[in-house]
């Protein structure tokens, strides 16, 4: 059995995790930095062997709790069968949290998020909360978590399982075997820049302002992650911006080019305007390896990439911060790319794979449980290879299943792969 998920599981993040920190402190080639890299590698391994992993579960709204339930099923199975030692705690976030506390995330949950080894996030929002004040809208909870945990690197793999190549709106040959990463800057740019306001101009008109702002260090650290990821893959980075019309694009292009020359001349670097990149993504996506983008363009391009893989319900993501100098831990929040899907919420038909694959990313990048992560990815691929499909990825001749049945099938495949079946 060969699947994109299995391929993806072979990535190793250790080099860039270590270098991304060294970039802040000193040049990567110095002896001090080399020993620091080794020192930072140790807690990852120690975590793996000795500690109980503390997971904070934030299921959220709409289909969030439905898909999170399938991760809880896997966690229970892994705890019972010695495949992991997890301690979980759940909290409200988004609209459900607003209904009870008047905010999208509470101080108590923020403290728990900071203390957790990894955060698993479902999805937030829905029409019920369309009218709530902007500062406490459901998405504000997610944005606060991202900002306060410093989750600047959002990794969104777009992998097309061979079993699903016909579910894409593009031709099979365009997407079959696709394995690319959209790397989105997550804590800067247009979504956070100030001023951000709607002004009353007093003449019956209003003016809305959002500010696109990037400093050198923000561009450099996300580009560095991109180069490090590429080195572990097909060694190619595509940097996107709009330098033809935006000053932030001019700086982005300059900083990425300089960093490439200085530290990553071995990696192939190309630049594409973000709109052209969107076009190329649907024309011939296999030309890409790692696409590095700012917050806004990354948001859009990753949704385009989502459709290449068949469904939003298939796409996991990881959002990672810097390694903390004191605790030697790195914050990580793992969530499906999709939203709360109000149109199917409560019907038991949501595809849980994006959420389960996000859990696999948490095992890999926050908990150092590479083998368990591989098993979960393989279990997803095996369930698909058996022809099971939720409605969003249904195809002729496949067996249509609901959320819980897909989750059960993945757990069953995990049991089989781990040799835990009776
Ligand atoms: N990170 C987040 O929490 C997040 C992200 C995007 C949107 N949202 C919020 O979600 C709400 C709905 O937004 P939207 O409709 O634009 O996007 P969406 O991702 O929720 O849904 C888009 C389409 O994809 C389908 N879909 C999504 N996930 C699926 C899954 N797991 N299985 C099967 N089908 C799936 C939905 O049924 C819908 O037809 C809005 O309130 C939006 O603000 C939240």
Map the helices and strands.
Elements: H1 4-9, H2 14-25, H3 31-50, E1 53-60, H4 64-80, E2 86-90, H5 95-101, H6 107-115, E3 118-123, H7 138-148, E4 153-159, H8 172-175, E5 179-185, E6 193-200, E7 206-211, H9 216-231, E8 236-241, H10 247-263, E9 268-273, H11 274-283, E10 290-293, H12 295-308, E11 316-323, E12 330-336, H13 353-365, H14 370-385, E13 388-389, E14 399-400, H15 403-417
Parallel strand pairs: 1-2, 1-3, 3-12, 5-10, 8-9, 8-10, 13-14
Antiparallel strand pairs: 4-5, 4-11, 6-7, 11-12
Nicotinamide-adenine-dinucleotide binds next to helix 7.
Number of domains: 2
CATH superfamily of the largest domain: Isopropylmalate Dehydrogenase
Strand content: 15-25%
Could you describe the largest sheet, including whether it forms a barrel? Answer: 10 strands, mixed
CATH topology of the largest domain: Isopropylmalate Dehydrogenase
**CATH first level of the largest domain:** Alpha Beta
Structural class: alpha/beta
Overall CATH architecture of the largest domain: 3-Layer(aba) Sandwich
Helix percentage range: 40-55%
Strand order of the largest sheet: 2-1-3-12-11-4-5-10-8-9
What is the radius of gyration computed over CA atoms, rounded to a whole number of angstroms?
21 Å
First and last CA, distance: 23 Å
Sketch the topology as an H/E string, one letter per element: HHHEHEHHEHEHEEEHEHEHEHEEHHEEH
- Strand tally is 14
Shape category = globular
């Amino acid at each position: 059995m060969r699947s994109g998920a299995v391929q993806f599981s072979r990535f190793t993040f250790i080099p860039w995790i270590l270098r991304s920190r060294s970039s802040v402190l000193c040049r990567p080639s110095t002896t001090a930095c080399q020993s620091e890299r080794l020192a930072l590698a140790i807690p990852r391994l120690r975590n793996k062997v000795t500690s109980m992993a503390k997971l904070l579960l934030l299921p959220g709204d709409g289909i969030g709790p439905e898909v999170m339930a399938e991760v809880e099923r896997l966690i229970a199975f892994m705890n019972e069968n010695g495949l992991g030692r997890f301690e979980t705690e759940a909290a409200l976030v988004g609209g459900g949290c607003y209904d009870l506390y008047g905010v999208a995330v509470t101080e108590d949950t923020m403290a728990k998020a900071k203390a957790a080894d990894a955060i698993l996030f479902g999805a937030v929002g829905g029409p019920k909360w369309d009218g709530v004040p902007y500062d406490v809208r459901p998405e504000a909870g997610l944005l606060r978590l991202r900002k306060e945990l410093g989750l600047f690197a959002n990794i969104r793999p777009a992998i097309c399982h061979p079993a699903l190549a016909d579910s894409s709106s593009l031709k099979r040959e365009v997407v079959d075997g696709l394995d690319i990463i959209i790397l989105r800057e997550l804590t800067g740019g247009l979504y956070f820049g100030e001023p951000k306001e709607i002004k009353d101009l007093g003449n019956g008109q209003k003016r809305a302002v959002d500010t696109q702002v990037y400093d050198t260090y923000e561009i450099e650290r996300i580009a560095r992650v991109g180069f490090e990821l590429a080195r572990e893959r097909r060694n190619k980075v595509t940097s996107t911006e709009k330098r033809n019309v935006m000053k932030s694009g001019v700086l982005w292009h300059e900083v990425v080019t300089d960093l490439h020359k200085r530290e990553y001349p071995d990696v192939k670097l190309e630049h594409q305007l973000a709109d052209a990149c969107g076009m190329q993504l649907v024309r011939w996506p296999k030309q890409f390896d790692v696409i590095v983008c700012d917050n806004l363009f990354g948001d859009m391009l990753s949704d385009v990439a989502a459709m290449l893989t068949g469904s939003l319900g298939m796409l996991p993501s990881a959002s990672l911060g810097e390694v903390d100098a004191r605790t030697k831990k790195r914050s990580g929040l793992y969530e499906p790319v999709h939203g709360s899907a109000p149109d199917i919420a409560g019907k038991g038909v949501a595809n849980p794979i994006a959420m389960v694959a996000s859990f696999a990313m948490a095992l890999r990048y926050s908990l150092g449980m590479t083998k368990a992560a591989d098993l979960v990815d393989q279990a997803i691929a095996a369930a698909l290879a058996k022809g099971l499909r939720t409605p969003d990825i249904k195809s002729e001749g496949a067996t249509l299943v609901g959320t819980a049945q897909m989750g059960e099938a993945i757990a069953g495949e995990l049991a089989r792969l781990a040799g835990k079946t009776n």
